[in-house]
Description:
Blueprint: H1 6-19, E1 36-45, E2 60-67, H2 71-75, H3 78-88, E3 93-101, E4 107-114, E5 119-125, E6 135-139, H4 141-145, E7 154-161, E8 164-167
Parallel strand pairs: 1-7
Antiparallel strand pairs: 1-4, 2-3, 2-5, 5-6, 7-8
Amino acid sequence: MTRLRPVALMPLVTLLWLGCSPKGPIATPGKKRCDELPLAVHLKVGKLINLNVVGQAQPVQVRLLLLKERETFDALDFQTVWQEGEKELEGILVRTIEFTVFPGQDKVSTYQAPRSVAYAAFIGLFRKPHESEWRQVIDLRAGAKGCVEGGLHIPVNAEVRDNRLVRYEAE
């Protein structure tokens, strides 16, 4: 029978210690957790978006809603979010960022969000919004867990395609 040496047990002890840590996995040694979440927003924009009556592509106003939770948001229809969003989302809406996207021109920006933000929800104010794809919600919770000062930004990606907002995974 072979005997395990104390040095051979070190990786096992380390794994057990990390797995039982009350704060989850330890981030990079010497780095402190983020006070705010660094968001890298990438909105990919198609060339034929928000067509007018003669078939010409038009710009789209987009709102990025930073939310504490998503259940209330998911229950709202397009008209309510568009016209009464701040009132209906009171208590869970942390911040609204508005911008206009133009056909064929991607939007890339960075923002800082309070740690209380758990979701980023894009809404597209289209001339004729798609029945269900006028919004796209991104869960930020996993990215927030590993966030350290000076670390990578949390990706917040979506795509504007015709009169829809769809999930987009950057390569």
